Amino acid sequence: MIDYRVDDDGIAIVTWNNPDSPVNTLTDASLAAYETAMDRALADTAVRGIVVTSAKRDFIAGADVHNFLAARSVQELEARSRRASALIRRLETAGKPLVAAINGTALGGGLEITLGCHHRIAADNPKTRLGLPEVTLGVLPGAGGTQRLPRLIGIRAAVPLMAEGKRLPVADALKAGIVHAVVPADQLIDQARAWILAGGEALQPWDRKGFRLPGGDLTHPGLQEFMSVVIAKVHERTAGNYPAPLNILSCVYEGTGSPIDAGLDIESRYFGVTAATVQAENLIRSGFLALNDARKLKARPKDVPKAEFRKVGVLGAGLMGSGIAHACASAGLETVLLDREQALAERGKAHAEKLLGREVERGRLDADGRAAVLARITPTADYATLAGCELVIEAVFEQREIKAEATRRTAEATGPDVLFGSNTSTLPITGLAEHWPRPDNFIGLHFFSPVHRMALVEVIRGRQTSDACLAQALDFVARIGKTPVVVNDSRGFFTSRVFTTYFEEGMALLAEGVAPALIENAGRQTGMPLGPLAVADEVALDLLHKVITQTRADLGSAYTAPASAPVIELFVEKLGRVGKKAGKGFYDYADGQRRLWPGLAEQFPVAATQPDVAAVKQRLLHIQALEAMRCLDQGVVGSTTDADVASLLGWGFPPWTGGVLSYVDTVGLDRFVAECESLAAHAGDRFAPPDSLSKLAGSGRSLRDAR
Amino acid sequence: MPEAFIYDAVRTPRGRGKPDGALHQVPPIRLATTVLNALRDRLELDTAHVDDVVLGVVSPVGEQGSNIARVAALEANYAETVAGVQINRFCASGLEAVNMAAGQIMAGQSDLVVGGGVESMSRIPMSAAGGAWYADPQVAFHSHYVPQGISADLIATLYGYSRADVDAYAAQSQARAAQAWEEKRFARAVIPVHAVDGAVLLDHDEHRRPGTTVESLASLPAAFEKFGAEYGFDAVALQRYPQLERIEHVHHAGNSSGIVDGAAAVLVGSREAGERLGLKPRARIRGFASIGTEPTIMLTGPAPATQKALKRAGMSPADIDLYEVNEAFAAVVLRFADLVGVPMDKINVNGGAIALGHPLGATGAMLLATVLDELERRDLATGLVTLCIGAGMGTATIIERL
Question: What architecture is domain A311-491?
């Protein structure tokens, strides 16, 4: 776990080296081993100083988050923080100079270990990131980070790093004063030794007599004002849904004016309180672990050999097709981008070029990289070019005939044995698969717009789709750096079907006379990226109108109109306000601004009594969870976890909830069922909880455990 | 219950609250002694009969700290038996100080008390004292803290006061203040401030901009747009007021209260104390009240404070001849007038803080002096002073001329 040696100069080299994993993490075991090694060096009178480093590519990636899920009480979590904090404090005051030789990324507890050293030297490694990103997991730096970082670089610099969880490259960390020096990797240990040999002092700045916080402490009016602004920005960003960033600010506010031991004490208390929240549990369990599992294809059929991809085809060079082509080529795949005419295919490639240009502007790609990606995209109108592809994805118009034609012509060019994926968002996969000679090799690959930003790919299994096809499709999704969720074939699949309920509910509220601004603010306050009416405008009301018409035609007497149907029909048929693309929908769009259409008041007079915002928020989230639950019951999604992941990545369901079905447990299953029953009585049958859920009420089990 | 009478009320002129303002060279302690000296000298008061000096200060730190009321009484050579206490009701501190003075009289526990306030905003800037209200993360979050300018714009948005409405009000404040000065309506209350060498530093309200029109105000940019958008405060306000799509920013330097330096003092006493010392009471304090209101919109306290004070005094809004409603921001006064149903020709008839300035700790006592002088000039009977207050409060005081 920890390698230990003492060199000829009497310098102990303490090296983190986890034998069971490619990364070092802070666990009870690794911290105990670290303590043993450090105590050995402290006790050895021949040792004059200690270099702390790592044998892995990273320094220390942070705490093992499973620790935070195992013991969920405030007391246990607080005690965990106290143990780490006390150790680091003891070491930094033990009298021997400590140097952190930071060879790679040090995050969270990893960086906190280095902050407890008297000197920090980082290897000049472009991949290294240094930061305290605990906030992204709903917790806070609990091993002294909230106290040492402000004392080291000042409150103004430290607060944004912790409240936003920023990860800095070494050059920025040097500029910020987090590390003292950046040196070539091969000189790292020597430079660390040299600092000790040159008489580096075993005294932290905050233990010096007369220490003052750089940039002033919080008795300064300017810093009080700074805090007020940071608090407002946190308030704006979190809408009260996330306690962690605010509690980080409190650690700074309450702790930095005192001696550091008092500050550490305050931090540990806040750590316990924060880590014990349901938000922390959700962000760790769903936002971190479940997403990682999905990325690593935990659900992939195991017995199918991993598929390799070199060349893929994309049919249709519109916004989606060119976005998919950009993703494939960026991942190193030869990509054929095909459209009816060469010019259309070229235009699709130009779109990819534009996206690459933005990456260059942001410094994520250099000119050579851009040229290489572009060279991998071959625009064409000739199906013969598809020969040799391992996978072809169609992203042509959402019309069965057009899709059938493209599918057939592809089969002629490639033969039947390549994988065929359809990016349809509405048409059942099983029906489309009939046009491919081997329906077992046909699968839905539902990308989201804009493709370059949306991490999710909904992988839709048709009735005949084989395990091998599924496994290979998952390999492909992982290959291009996206995250798959497998769903079964049904109308709207999972993502569209559930997401739709959000803005449909918004429209239902509007029709009831709820003030439009209240609906929109409530939507945003839940943590959804946009208010429901704004979303409806983005999706386009004429499209929703088409879906309603199509569904009514398909289902006949089995069709029940959604609560939003009258609103959609009014806007499309009478008002001609079809959404953002037309510059007018629920909002007016002009000069890059979105303003609620003043005419709404005339169409939907605002009722004299308005619900409070909590009631509106409840409707907008509960309705989605109910639809997701029905999907789970119908086998559209296989697990609550899949539903959670799809909701987090597919439509930005608020992460504090843990995802659309974890939300039920977050509310509390019994309470959720009772609230739905009450809503069903007042707002409509659509809120009636499914039997599967009602049956669980009172059982004491969570939905996550039961399903 | 003994009644509390006002025997006199004085104030300094208001100096522009900047380093080039005429009163900037004067430490706040000397602003305070200026008005304490004036009270004593005008009334030929034997200060041994004064029980207490209550002074309001909003930023009681540095040279305004350490209980400036007691120190000012000593420095003004009041008898050493005169106690002193500094209080802070934010923007209503000066009025609250008078109310507390009156309260001591009414309770029969004191005979003569000075109430007043002082603030040198040019020397001790606003917010110099800090506070948990906006800097403690939990507190600011729970209370949905926003700066007052955002609150004022929130009032305007919520109740539909346009930029033209608030600018018209501001121009009227300037015009009324100009006329008041031309006609020397403030002459009785204003005590010029002298330098150590005896030179007169200021004998008039320095912040005024006579000739201001709606047109001339139109060019001023809204002051709180950046605070609202970039610093997140609009979003915080909207989380409390989710029925609004956005905050309309209409306030700016020209329709908000001016930052100034100044002090004021009011001598309050029982009937018997006045008779004993041969003092003639100018007015009786009919009643007063303070009240808490929603803290994010913050500045809507004057109406409920007024209603509370009127109720306690057994009066109705129509019973009041003249109102002084502190012009913290134009929308505050417009909202007050609408809610209480008071015509504009009874409110701030000599202008207000938009034209004259708002020396935070002193303003309430200054307004009391202003309304008392004007009641006498117009030969009217009743006046009400009210101010909006940080963190969502209002204070109101009703006086009746004798």
Answer: 3-Layer(aba) Sandwich (3.40)
- When pLDDT is averaged across residues B255-269 and rounded to a whole number, the result is 98
Beta-carbon-side half-sphere exposure of residue A378 (alpha carbons within 13 Å): 16
From B244, which residue of chain A is nearest by alpha-carbon distance? A517
Contact (CB, 8 A) for A319 and A333: no
Task: Give Dmax over CA atoms of chain B in angstroms.
Answer: 62
Closest CA–CA distance from residue B356 to any residue of chain A (Å): 27
Cβ contact (<8 Å) for A235 and B245?
Answer: no
CB contact under 8 A, A517 and B141: no
pLDDT in tens, B369-402: 999 999 999 999 999 999 999 999 999 999 999 9
Instruction: Provide, rounded to the nearest whole percent, the portion of chain A with pLDDT above 70.
Output: 100
CB < 8 Å to A234, chain B: 137, 141, 232
What CA–CA distance (Å, rounded) separates B19 from B35?
Answer: 22
Q: Is A326 a catalytic residue?
A: no
**For residues A681-693, average pLDDT:** 96
Q: How confident is the model at residue B220, as a pLDDT?
A: 97
With a CB cutoff of 8 Å and minimum separation 6, the contacts of B188 are B373
In chain A, where are the structural domains located?
2-276, 311-491, 496-706
Going A345 to A348 to A353 to A359, the CA torsion angle's sign is: negative
> Nearest residue of B to residue A612 by CA position?
B242
Q: Measured on CA atoms in the order A376, A382, A387, A390, is the torsion positive or negative?
A: positive
A249 touches chain B (CB under 8 A): yes
| Closest approach of B37 to chain A, Cα-based (Å) | 33
CA angle A679, A682, A686 (to 5 degrees): 55
pLDDT digits (tens, 9 = 90+) for B345-362: 999 999 999 999 999 999
Per-residue confidence (pLDDT) for residue A425, from 0 to 100: 87
Q: Would you call the peptide bond into A450 cis, given omega within 30 degrees of 0 as the criterion?
A: yes
Q: Which of A446, A545, A622, A682 is catalytic?
A: A446
Q: Which CATH number fits domain A2-276: 3.40.1360.10, 3.40.50.300, 3.90.226.10, 3.40.605.10?
A: 3.90.226.10
User: What's the pLDDT at A426?
Assistant: 82
Selecting from B236, B242, B244 the residue whose C-beta is nearest the C-beta of A235 gives B236
Q: List, for residues A247-287, the tens digit of each pLDDT value.
A: 999 999 999 999 999 999 999 999 999 999 999 999 999 99
In this complex, which of B128, B129, B236 lies closest to A232 when CB atoms are compared? B236
Topology of A496-706 in CATH? N-(1-d-carboxylethyl)-l-norvaline Dehydrogenase; domain 2 (1.10.1040)
d(C-alpha A690, C-alpha A626), whole Å = 8
Specify the pLDDT at position A215: 96
